[in-house]
């Protein structure tokens, strides 16, 4: 069993406090959904989990299986089994996608970066076909000319290949066509069934056609203001964030 615990995390970027005490957990076998209006701090949380040095932890902790990873460099967090897919990934033209996949597997296995691994590449090609990702991505530079949908599928491919303890995906359903959402949703359920803990952000109830969340957190202005179930996602889709916040405020006042 693996567990990622975000404990009272306060984070600053660009000289401004963005996360103001965020706590949440995700464990093996869970699919945890994070919602919240634009600018509420979801991507900041994910970047901080990944270890992006632009995001300064002011207080609180990030624990993997009870051990703090908050001061580890990104590659060590990754080697320990925390995989983070980004909302807007960057392209790395000088590294072929196939080489990056092989390098990632080698890092996880504690091998040399360049150790050949033809078996893994064959597996990656099989997964790509299932995700509807064209085989030519492997010979292209990472992210070079990738469409929005190809980026998202490529990140899920990495997770399926690596089977990390914890998979964090920032809006994996955005920019995808309906087949893409179905393929990514299926992959997310497969990851959790095989023992990964999945934390993802989304804005849309349509993902519920394909995933069954264990738990839903809602963020606003750098804080988690609510924990609930998939009913929360449906209600937010129906009425919008601001009306939803008014509704729960009324309920709290009763
Ligand atoms: N590197 C950064 N420098 C300065 N401000 C940032 C940085 N990253 C995020 N922010 C700010 O933090 C707030 C939360 O952004 P973000 O985490 O991207 O929200 P979300 O993903 O929920 O839409 C926004 O006001 C955004 O402008
Ligand atoms: Mg975001």
UniProtKB/TrEMBL annotation:
Superkingdom assignment: Archaea
Pfam families in alphabetical order: ABC_tran
Organism: Pyrobaculum islandicum (strain DSM 4184 / JCM 9189 / GEO3)
UniProt keywords, alphabetically: ATP-binding, Nucleotide-binding
Protein name: FeS assembly ATPase SufC
ABC transporter domain mapped to chain residues: 4-246
Any one GO MF annotation of this record: ATP binding
ATP-binding found in the keyword field: yes
Transmembrane segments: none
CDD domains: ABC_FeS_Assembly
